[in-house]
From TrEMBL:
This is Alkaline phosphatase PhoX. The chain holds residues 152 to 834 of 834 of the full protein. Coiled coil: none annotated. Residues 449-484, 641-668 are annotated as: Disordered. It comes from Sphingomonas molluscorum. It comes from the Bacteria. Residues 645-659 have a biased composition (Polar residues).
């Protein structure tokens, strides 16, 4: 039970200034420690990372591009969960992508268009998920246990099982899994979630980019009676002519299983079976899912939860759980003008399930049956959750939908048919643990327009009300559309996760504090809290020294329009409640045209939103979790120095965090932030 005392809680630190320095900066009285870096070994026999491009063995080292992350408390001595343990736990984190240049001695190579097998294998294995055991020592410092039996790398080659309505569907059949029930690995894992039954949810975001699709594929599919697949592949961004990220399909493999490279070529072969079991034409349909991992069982097979739909899954945050009430999971589909979703389990929550040792079976109970909804935001300040249920509304054979599996595999097409609201790139979702309100970062959208000029642009509306030009002082072209992003939030009708309608408002609009207060800086941000391109978002629930429990929100940023003035950052907030603001008229001007809409703006955040951290050069701040006592905060620093290469190293972080380290290559890393007096971080 949670007790919230009367009296306004306050943030307990001085704001960190914007910065372009190559270091992680935090408020006075706090310390940053580097815990887990790209390449760090997670098996006892493995050598330290040389960080010079010669290292291999990434299936037993930390991957690259640390992203979403959860801490799971572990028994002090033992192997079962202990949700209250703040000194020993399992840290599970995503490795979303790679900075290819730094993984090799002199950057990536190819000979006559063919990538070397060893380079491609390294790049593949540097994606995925890490599970590591971490402990806080008697001196207060954190370390990971290199030889722990819990340590695990999940890579794009790890065996996965399909669960839920799409398991075994014809669209999931491949040369690897003739019955469409199994697959290999997960890729471009962005944000995360964790469940009350101690499992981890990793989310497949920009997976489409890894696939090659040759010209002529659409004709082969059409001739094979699979014309409908072409519309879906196009809707998910897999057009003919794509070569696939990093050129993995060009490898001429010596490996025993050559398909770990060939599988990224989704081109159908005319001479092979139309059902897709002879090649990898259906491989793209095996990606775009939420994947559940049991971090406490290193031998377990992760399960792709198809009931939660297929999209560019950013995160998956469970709402408040109430015994006897069906729980909800909130998700963003991160691409321009995509949608916000929630999945409501068919089964009501039973608290005893939190303690069951068969965690993935509990996942089967709550994540394999239920209803997926997509959000429509109305100008009235209300909104509707539209069900993606086969046979209901337009989701019928007359419109091309043949089953619930079909609706889920082609989630975006179903959501289009229902009239969902296109949003400014839905990133992370977070739920206020006290009020149950759901927040979603909308990071930015260059295709938000005053006068839409192309089919991919959308006009400003109540929930996405800004389109403008944001100049940059570093010589790059201005950013257009909703250049700085915003954070939308909603409150379920009746405050129940089962609701099919909600009210909404906008928590904060990103903006530089120097920008137009009437059209851009609508939240009145100042030098202590101006931000752009919100992305990572998470609520902790720490207590301050007087025992006051406070829902403390952390917000992280990704690139965007502000990197001429500052590196990416993390802010802390004690937000108000949905509806604490008022209707606000917004006039957008772009390309000489204007549009006026009325939005629902929350109260200006003022001193309740404050910058806590600024990262090193060219990084994104993404991934956050805390120990249950709120005294150790884990944060990921993704791709420092991402625009450089071995001949032009643009960041030396983290080697330079405490002393200059010229020549050192940068490494994505997990850091731990603690307060020097041992107190709760942020309050
Ligand atoms: Fe991987 Fe949408 O951020
Ligand atoms: Ca993100
Ligand atoms: Ca982003
Ligand atoms: Ca990134």
């Amino acid at each position: 039970t949670v007790t919230v005392l009367v009296g306004a809680p306050e943030l307990g630190f001085a704001a960190v200034p914007k910065s372009l320095a190559d270091v992680v900066a935090v408020p006075a009285g706090y310390t940053v420690s580097v815990l887990y870096r790209l390449g760090d070994p997670i098996a006892s026999s493995l050598a330290p990372y040389g960080n010079n491009g010669t290292d291999g063995d990434f299936a037993r080292r930390a991957g690259d591009h640390h992203d979403g992350m959860s801490y799971f408390g572990l028994q002090a001595s033992g192997s079962a969960p202990d949700a209250a343990n703040s000194t020993r736990g399992l840290l599970v984190l995503n490795h979303e992508n790679i900075t290819q240049a730094y993984l090799h001695a002199n950057g990536p190579t190819s000979v006559a268009g063919v990538r070397p097998e060893a380079e491609a294998l390294k790049e593949i294995e540097a994606h995925g998920v890490s599970v590591i055991e971490v402990t806080r020592g008697s001196n207060g410092g954190w370390s990971y246990a290199q030889g722990s039996a819990f340590n695990r790398r999940i890579t794009p080659n790890t065996l996965m099982a399909f669960h839920g309505p799409a398991r075994g569907d014809a669209s999931l059949r491949t040369a690897y899994s003739a019955d469409g029930t199994a697959g290999r690995g997960t890729i471009n894992n962005c944000a995360n979630g964790s469940t009350p039954w101690h499992s981890y949810l990793t989310n497949e975001e920009n997976w489409a980019g890894y696939f090659r699709r040759n010209a002529g594929d659409a004709a082969i599919r059409a001739a094979a009676g699979r014309a409908a697949q072409n519309a879906s592949l196009a809707r998910y961004g897999i057009a003919e002519g794509r070569t696939g990220n990093y050129g993995w399909t060009t490898v001429t493999p010596a490996a025993a299983d050559s398909t770990i490279f060939r599988r990224w070529n989704a081109t159908a072969s005319a001479g092979l079976p139309a059902d897709g079991t002879g090649d990898f034409r259906n491989e793209p349909f095996q990606f775009g899912w939420v994947v559940e991992i049991d971090p406490f069982d290193p031998a377990s097979t992760p399960r792709k939860r198809t009931a939660l739909g297929r999209m560019n899954h950013e995160g998956c945050q469970i709402g408040r759980t109430v015994a006897g009430v069906r729980p909800a999971f909130y998700m963003g589909d991160d691409a321009q003008n995509e949608y916000i979703y929630k999945f409501v389990s068919q089964q009501p929550w039973a608290a005893a399930d939190a303690n069951r040792p068969d965690r993935l079976a509990v996942g089967d109970k709550y994540l394999d049956t239920g209803t997926l909804y997509v959000a429509r935001f109305d100008a009235s300040g209300e909104g509707q959750w539209l069900p993606l249920v086969f046979g209901q509304g337009p989701l019928t054979p007359a419109n091309g939908f043949t089953s619930q599996a079909d609706v889920l595999i082609h989630t975006r097409l179903a959501a289009d048919a229902l009239g969902a609201t296109p949003m400014d790139r839905p990133e992370w979702t977070a739920v206020n643990p006290v009020t149950g309100e759901m927040y979603c970062t909308l990071t930015n959208n260059s295709n938000r327009a005053v006068t839409p000029a192309s089919g991919s642009q959308r006009r400003v509306d109540a929930a996405n009300p800004r389109a403008y030009l944001d100049p940059r002082s570093d010589g790059r072209s201005p950013t257009r559309g909703n250049a700085n992003g915003h954070v939308v939030r909603l409150r379920e009708a009746g405050d129940t996760s089962e609701a099919t309608s909600f009210t909404w408002d906008i928590y904060a609009f990103g903006a530089g504090s120097d920008l137009d207060p009437a059209g851009i800086n609508l939240s009145g941000l100042d030098a202590t809290n101006d931000f752009s391109s919100p992305d990572g978002l998470w609520f902790g629930l720490p207590s301050n020294p007087s025992g006051q429990v406070t829902p403390l929100m952390w917000m992280q940023t990704d690139d965007g329009a502000f990197t001429d003035q500052t590196n990416c950052m993390m802010l802390a907030a004690i937000p108000g409640i949905v509806g604490d603001g008022k209707a606000q008229t917004v006039t957008s001007t772009l390309d000489g045209q204007t549009a006026t809409v009325t939005t629902r703006a929350g109260r200006a955040p003022g001193a309740t939103l404050r910058r806590f951290l600024v990262g090193p050069k060219e990084c994104e701040i993404t991934g956050i979790h805390s120990t249950p006592d709120g005294r150790s905060l884990f944060v990921n620093i993704q791709h420092p120095g991402e625009n450089g290469n071995p001949a032009n190293i643009t960041s030396n972080w983290p080697a330079n965090q405490t002393a200059a380290a010229p020549g050192q290559r940068p490494r994505s890393s997990t850091i731990v932030i603690t307060r020097d007096d041992g107190g709760v971080v942020g309050l």
